[in-house]
Amino acid sequence: MALPMHLAQRYQAGDSWLADCSAHPDLVRQVWDAERLAPLVCGTRWLVAESRITTGMPAVMRIREDQRGPVLADGELDKAWWLVPLDAAAELAGVRQLTVHPAGWSLHCPPMNSYVDYRFWLWRPDGSGHLTDPAVLAAAFGPGGYRHPTEASA
Fold it and tell me: What is the pTM of this model?
């Protein structure tokens, strides 16, 4: 079944952005065409913060949709990978439920509209380069969760 045009365009924009994050975007597209996971090395445009899905889902529900960046999940491994800005490691260092991988670490990704080897996008890249703010992510994993500024003063 074909995707509606607006979804196909969004997925294409996300795939293009993600492939372009690689030093070899054409190779990434070839791997995806073969319905395999493409290794994308972090550290040029984003880092990866890893959590368990079981602890990450409550956190993701605490983050407004417009503040969520891409999140990749693996149901078999119970892992979620959040794409975060390059300077996120220091801010997330104290969040025990998250491990921030260093530059050079490879994240094996499917394209936007595929489920490959138990991996799928909980929140897909939209092509804009939007990432999850580390302060928002850290607060979402905290005991009280992230509170929007208007909620904090109420």
Answer: 0.87
